[in-house]
């Protein structure tokens, strides 16, 4: 499976075409293609198929020299048109355009694993997108769950440094390094949209090898006590090249670090609402596919209709902290990665120009859109109300959870890898610690009279479109108007 094409440094029009021809999976003669592009004034069907094939594949320009200017689409158009205009060919050449430019450079990375060539891998320093990316991925499968390993993951592996690109990201107050196989080079653009990229420092909190080619398909992580470092690995063939496998592993390592610090990772979204001198921060937590993102969007839409100021702090992943005798929350990602299978088209186009699309096979499944800034994600926001979204509830509507025992039973009652109130990744492997944190944090919320609610989000995708609108309006009436 071909996910993206990579071009190093300055590429002439002729060499650009030769690289495309090398990757073309069907028999086609180079001399014929060049002849048709430069001499033949009419469209030739095999050539049109060739053009169509590469128009759908991402083309990434890798620049290592800082003084090399990033090519623009117009610059590339002019280069490619030189071939066309030699004999006045009428064939359009806009299919041949770089979709992204990556600026990379070497860093003297210090690491404890001498048998791995990590210090020879270049690091990504900047991403420029020249078009709205549609990134092809393998089909998602639940056959490869994340597992905590009891043995050192990096002991018996070998890797070629030329096949990887390093990316240093900031997530919360931590810094992690991801080594991305170049087969998944497009994921670097998506990763830089989810987390700020930075230069690797002297110390870092986790390492992740993604896309390591291996006969063994696995998603695993391990805590190296000797070096006080979490390490992760996603290995296998092309079927393991899915962006969610990468994102979930990063969150797993991050959440494990948070639990060590006595913080509680939650599977949630958070919104800030300001109305008539009243400030409210609402957290919507719950099981997977319970509608946290959809309810967040409905709240923002309802606030806009009511002319109430509202903004999202995070979507999908947050952290609860105990600070100054209060429960506060921070985010971990600066963008939202949403399943758009049932999203209305007008909602997609609202963020089209600034978004990144992820495609499984022939279906566009996810959209990454900007949500907040890194600085905002680090701020501590007091929690004024906590909502548990239950897609398996036996009642309709919503209810206020009146007793602490009821709240604890609710939040611990869905304790498995799919339906866990805590961020499902890593927290399940730290059950005892996570349960203690849930007891502790809910007790503090309850004693401080912070509202705890359960929402039923059971229904078909069509029914849920209207359900979230009703819930959003009811929540605003309850929280802001006291009705």
Briefly say what this structure is:
This protein has 483 residues and is α/β, with parallel strands linked by helices. It folds into three domains: 4-98, no CATH class; 113-261, Phosphoenolpyruvate Carboxykinase, domain 1, CATH 3.40.449; 265-334 and 371-481, Phosphoenolpyruvate Carboxykinase, domain 3 (Alpha-Beta Complex), CATH 3.90.228. It has 13 helices and 25 strands.
Question: Which features would summarize this protein structure in a list?
Answer:
alpha/beta, Phosphoenolpyruvate Carboxykinase, domain 1, 6-stranded mixed beta sheet, Phosphoenolpyruvate Carboxykinase, domain 3, 25 strands, 30% helix, 483 residues, single chain
Structural features, described:
By secondary structure, the protein is an alpha/beta fold. The protein folds into three domains: 4-98, no CATH class; 113-261, Phosphoenolpyruvate Carboxykinase, domain 1 (3-Layer(aba) Sandwich), CATH 3.40.449; 265-334 and 371-481, Phosphoenolpyruvate Carboxykinase, domain 3, CATH 3.90.228.20. It is 30% helix and 30% strand. The chain is built from 13 helices and 25 strands. It has a seven-stranded mixed beta sheet with strand order 6-11-12-10-8-7-9, with helices on one face. Strands 16-14-15-23-25-24 form a six-stranded mixed beta sheet, with helices on both faces. Strands 1-2-3-4 form a four-stranded mixed beta sheet, sandwiched between helices. β20 (356-360) and β21 form a beta hairpin. α7 (292-305) crosses α13 (461-481). It is globular and about 75 Å long. The N and C termini lie far apart (56 Å).
């Amino acid at each position: 499976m071909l996910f993206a094409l990579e071009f190093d440094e300055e590429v002439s029009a002729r060499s650009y075409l030769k690289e495309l021809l090398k990757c073309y999976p069907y028999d086609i003669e180079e001399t014929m293609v060049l002849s048709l592009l430069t001499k033949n004034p009419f469209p030739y069907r095999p050539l049109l198929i060739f053009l169509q094939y590469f128009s759908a594949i991402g083309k990434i320009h890798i620049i290592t020299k800082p003084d090399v200017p990033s090519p623009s689409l117009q610059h590339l158009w002019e280069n490619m048109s030189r071939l066309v205009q030699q004999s006045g060919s009428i064939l359009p050449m806009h299919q041949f355009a770089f979709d992204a430019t990556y600026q990379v450079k070497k860093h003297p990375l210090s690491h404890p694993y001498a048998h791995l060539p990590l210090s020879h891998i270049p690091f990504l320093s900047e991403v420029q997108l020249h078009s709205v990316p549609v990134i092809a991925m393998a089909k998602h499968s639940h056959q490869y769950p994340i597992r905590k390993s009891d043995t050192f993951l990096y002991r018996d592996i070998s890797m070629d440094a030329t096949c990887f690109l390093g990316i240093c990201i900031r997530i919360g107050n931590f810094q992690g390094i991801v080594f991305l196989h170049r087969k998944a080079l497009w994921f670097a653009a998506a990763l830089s949209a989810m987390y700020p990229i930075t230069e690797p420092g002297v110390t870092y909190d986790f390492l992740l090898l993604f896309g390591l080619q291996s006969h063994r398909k696995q998603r695993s992580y391990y805590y190296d006590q000797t070096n006080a470092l979490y390490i992760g690995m996603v290995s296998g063939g092309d079927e393991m090249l899915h962006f969610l496998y990468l994102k979930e592993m990063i969150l797993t390592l991050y959440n494990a670090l948070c639990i060590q610090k006595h913080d509680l990772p939650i599977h949630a979204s958070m919104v800030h609402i300001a109305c008539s001198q009243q400030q409210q921060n609402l957290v919507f937590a719950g099981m997977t596919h319970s509608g946290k993102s959809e309810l967040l969007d409905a709240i923002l839409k309802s606030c806009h209709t009511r002319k109430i100021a509202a903004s999202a702090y995070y979507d999908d992943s947050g952290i609860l902290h105990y600070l100054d005798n209060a429960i506060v929350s921070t985010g971990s990602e600066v963008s939202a990665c949403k399943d758009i299978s049932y999203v209305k088209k007008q909602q997609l186009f609202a963020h089209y120009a600034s978004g990144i699309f992820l495609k499984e096979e022939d279906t566009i499944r996810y959209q990454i859109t900007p949500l907040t800034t890194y600085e905002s994600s680090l701020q501590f926001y007091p929690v004024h109300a906590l909502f548990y979204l239950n897609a398996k509830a036996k009642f309709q509507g919503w209810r206020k959870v009146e007793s602490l025992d009821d709240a604890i039973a609710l939040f611990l009652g869905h304790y498995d890898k799919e339906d866990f109130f805590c961020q499902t990744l890593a927290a399940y492997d730290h059950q005892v610690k996570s349960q203690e944190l849930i007891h502790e944090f809910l007790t503090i919320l309850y004693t401080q009279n912070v509202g705890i609610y359960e929402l039923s989000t059971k229904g078909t995708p069509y029914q849920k479109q209207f359900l979230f609108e009703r819930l959003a309006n009811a929540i605003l009436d309850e929280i802001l108007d006291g009705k």
